[in-house]
Amino acid sequence: MKNPSLSLLAGLFPIIILVVLLAYNVTIFGDDALSGSNQFILLLGASVAYLVGICNKVSYGQMLQKVGENLQSVTGPILILLLVGALGGTWLLSGIIPTMIDYGLQIANPRFFLSACVLICALVSLATGSSWSTSATIGIALIGIGKALGLPMGMVAGAVISGAYFGDKLSPLSDTTNLAPAMADGELFTHIRYMLYTTLPSIIITVIVFTLLGLSFSASGEVDTEMLSQSIREKFNINPWLFIVPAAVILMIAKKTPPLLALFIGTLLGGIFALIFQSQLLMEMSDSKLLNFDMAYKGILNSVALATDIETNNPLLNELFSSGGMQGMMGTIWLIICAMVFGGVMDAIGALNAISNALVKWSNNTFQLIASTAASSLTVNLSASDQYLAIVIPGKMFAQAYKDRKLAPENLSRTLEDAGTVTSVLIPWNTCGAYQSGVLGVGVPEYFIYAFFNWISPLMTLLHAYFNFKIKGLKID
Questions:
Q1: Neighbours of 400 (CB within 10 A)
Q2: What are 234-249's pLDDT values in tens digits?
Q3: I want to staple 356 with a disulfide (CB 3.0 to 4.6 A). Which of 153, 255, 397, 473 is the partner?
Q4: What are phi and psi of 451, to 5 degrees?
């Protein structure tokens, strides 16, 4: 379906209305905005885009078709979210998450915990190629340890996300790392090597900033980690064998096992390990002196599907040892669906093409071309609410412009990643922002400023372009 022509002002109008409405909505509802009101605002934004489309003679059927295509594209992420909720429930019940937190408390030094979060998540994400899987496994445990250490949750989430997106961006196993050079007509490993020029300085600055933050927060006093550890061990059977499950999931993803299958197996293993290691807890939760099959089945299935709250003698841990299961992910899924409705209508009426075309026309030199690409990726992330579209649409729009300016394709692919992949998580209604905030339990506004790597990366790309540093020319045969 060919997109209709649309003026730049008409294309921007729904985005301006959406941003204004969302800003007002957040001032009214605060952190509760993601509970439902933001979702409706996205539908209001879609209705504004619909009216623009009707005025431009785009049929309702065309818009509905694009919405359907958008919704189909997020089938995988929605299923992943459901399985992440299920996995979180069984990993809590089995003692996997409490064991990670307990061991983390033994070795965690508040002074360097934040920088350690960045490095750990970077390594896991490099190995798995997935920022989503990193957050859903080691990220959840690090959030728990950070909360136990008394660190601000936005700060810890920012460290987790910074490390996770560094690894995701450079891993040859990552889908976005493969998609960007494909859109730019480049080569994968050339693309990865070229990204090091902007990515390594960004992560070095990020680690330094988190180290300084950790040193400043340690001055406020140490948390009694021994008391927390004792409370955990009174409630759970803490055993190093429980690390088998997260290690197996990470290994499966590193071996290119589909994430859905890896998370499903991880959920099943969590349930099995709950039977093996936490039978006493299962009996306590079922208020029974004997654990039979029916009680075990009910306890495990409840942790998969519904909220699980495990009480200890420590209020901090009571808040920590709580999981919403698959039910807890429904708010995030609702947000993604509404975002895809808005993005689909915007695509159908030609708004995304209008904005990208205007940016291409503005590009009179190399810096403006790269800045236009970055702005286009960010605009698509804001409007279409999907990081893949933020790579695909600008990639298609700018590929010829880079060739005409005699620039190597890795300039385009690097910019798509620096501005498209990493900024998606900074937008609350984007699929990535919704996912990370849902999985980590920390709102995007809370971690936004602390996700240093994610907003330093596009600035680093612009600096390289402005000073014409490491801007590779196109080889002419």
A1: 11
A2: 889 999 999 899 889 8
A3: 397
A4: -80, 65
